[in-house]
Amino acid sequence: MTEDYSPKVVGFLCRWCSYTGADLAGAMRLQYPPNIRIIQVPCTGKVDIIHLLQAFEVGADAVFVSGCHEGDCHYVAGNYYARKRVERVKKILKEVGLEPERLEMFHISASEGPKFASVAREMTERACKLGPNPVKVELRAAWLAEQPVATAAAC
Predict the structure, then answer these.
(1) For the chain, how many structural domains are there in total?
(2) Which of 54, 22, 51 has its CA nearest to residue 36?
(3) 136: pLDDT confidence band, cut at 50, 70 and 90?
(4) What is the pTM of this model?
């Protein structure tokens, strides 16, 4: 059944740097997994805790937030706020029984298309290793049942 498992990865990207970096990765025709769902935000500082938790609630297997490099935020401190929120949500995930590794914060500038492709691959690999989000009860149960027989490399 895990042959059907294709992880859903959601990325919240700031429009000034990371989204432009993702666009550059596409323009450079760099290969990265097609299961990345990008949500463009004006600044990562606008990504609230509830947005991150809702992404997991609706079935995302992994979520990442990516913005300007620290000290280079177009809105001065938005990426600092985002980093603090990501750390808070990691603690919440751990408390509710989800792996905190399912969430990560990255800094990608507009000129770092290859870095975006690398981050997309990394988050997809993490999701493959961690398996389906426990919200997806049937898929998670099937994946767990196969784990003693095969490794998580089915993705």
Answers:
(1) 1
(2) 22
(3) confident
(4) 0.92
